[in-house]
Amino acid sequence: MLWFWITLFLTIAVISLLLINIKIHRRNKAERRLKAREAKAELEKVFQMNCEAAGLTPRVIDTVRLVLDGRTYKEAADILFISDKTVESHMSNAYSKLGVKGQLNLYKKLYSQTLNP
User: Cα(72)–Cα(63) distance, rounded to whole angstroms?
Assistant: First the structure.
């Protein structure tokens, strides 16, 4: 009879610990999501400030954002209802205004905390 009570107690203890662990995991997951959203919002704010400081037009900013998010020039053109050549022109304008060559350098320049044009 004693083994029954010990087994019952241990089963209840394990289930309780499991439920506590699940609750903690869900809370941590929600906190991570919130932090990720805040970080993304901060990055977007830096991007916007740097674009404005460089004097990029809203259409060029839209084009740059799509290309830096991994879209091809053709995909960006289709999304924005413009030609591939216009996307090329917008990207060229962004490169020249920021004084960089290549998408990686453009990304670094636009998403860095301080813009040095």
Answer: 10
CA-CA distance, 107 to 92, in Å (whole number)? 14
Q: How many whole angstroms separate alpha carbon 56 and alpha carbon 65?
A: 12
Q: Quote the CA–CA distance of 10 and 90 in Å, as a whole number.
A: 67
CA dihedral sign of residues 96, 102, 105, 109: positive
H helical segments located in 1-117: 2-54, 58-68, 73-80, 84-98, 103-111
| Residues 73 and 67: beta-carbon distance below 8 Å | yes
Asked whether the beta carbons of 76 and 93 are under 8 A apart, the reply is no
Q: What is the pLDDT of residues 2-51, one digit of tens each?
A: 898 899 999 999 999 999 999 888 889 889 999 999 999 999 999 999 99
